[in-house]
UniProtKB/TrEMBL annotation:
This protein's name: Class I SAM-dependent methyltransferase
GO molecular function: methyltransferase activity
Methyltransferase domain segment(s): 52-147
InterPro entries per UniProt: Methyltransf_25, SAM-dependent_MTases_sf
Single biological process term from Gene Ontology: methylation
Keywords: Methyltransferase, Transferase
Pfam families: Methyltransf_25
Highest taxon above the source species: Bacteria
């Protein structure tokens, strides 16, 4: 799919989003989202580098990052999502900018402005097709430069079975996820080894890894919060080792 296609479906999604709680399926509170990820893996990121929140959407996680790094840039392909993010509470050192990660020249221009940067990449790659994933990871490598590292949270292979369970519980797509599918966004869990192979193509290798979950806004019939299984990696230049 083209970059223009991804921009359109995400603009459509965010344009259809209001302040009503629970609309955004993956809208974790920062303490069980980015702050928990940083608690576990943040020691692998150089605190002196800026941090770019890739696919920041409406900016929830980027605002939490701004409390941990001096300069944070939330980027997204969707102008509609960025409009929501910019309308939120301002934070020192936080800015939002449009970035088409599939555009190599755009990634190069952002790197030229920021220098080497750390990246937070939460549940972005799984909704891209195979060719777009390769281009996206090349863009991530451009932004990292020589010294940056990428903290990547992605749906694990176990997520596929978990979504089947959710569909069975709700006799179809559950609320929140139904909105995602209606706008043509097609999530697909990456299979074992996909992430490391993708990043290896861009000269990046795992520095650390672990398991986690995405706390969704969906409550199950028994009252529990739906938790989507994830794999978590920190990637850096393969030459580091």
């Amino acid at each position: 799919m083209s970059a223009a296609h991804y921009a359109k479906i995400w603009d459509d999604y965010w344009s259809d989003t209001t302040d009503e709680p629970g609309q955004v399926f993956w809208d974790s509170r920062p303490e069980v989202g980015v702050l928990d990820d940083l608690h576990r893996f943040g020691a692998h990121l150089d605190p002196h580098l800026p941090l770019v929140d890739i696919g920041c959407g409406h900016g929830t996680q980027a605002r939490a990052l701004a409390g941990r790094f001096a300069h944070v840039v939330g980027v997204d392909v969707s102008e509609a999502g960025l409009a929501i993010a910019r309308a939120g509470e301002p934070r020192p050192g936080l800015e939002f900018a449009r970035l088409d990660l599939l555009d190599a020249a755009a990634a190069q221009a952002l790197h030229a402005r920021l220098g080497d940067a750390n990246l937070y990449v939460r549940a972005v790659l799984h909704q891209l097709d195979d060719a777009a994933r390769v281009a996206a990871v090349a863009g991530l490598a451009q932004l990292l430069g020589a010294r940056g590292r990428a903290l990547v949270v992605e749906l694990s292979p176990a997520a596929e079975a978990y979504f089947e369970y959710l569909f069975a519980e709700f006799a179809g797509p559950p609320p929140g996820l139904r909105r995602v599918l209606r706008h043509g966004i097609q999530p697909a869990a990456l299979q074992r080894g996909d992430l490391t192979r993708l990043f290896a193509l861009a000269g990046l290798a795992p520095v650390a890894q672990g398991k986690g979950v995405i706390h969704t806004t969906l409550n199950l019939p028994g009252g529990q919060v739906a938790l989507v299984p994830t794999d978590i990696f920190v990637f850096g230049r393969a030459s580091e080792g």
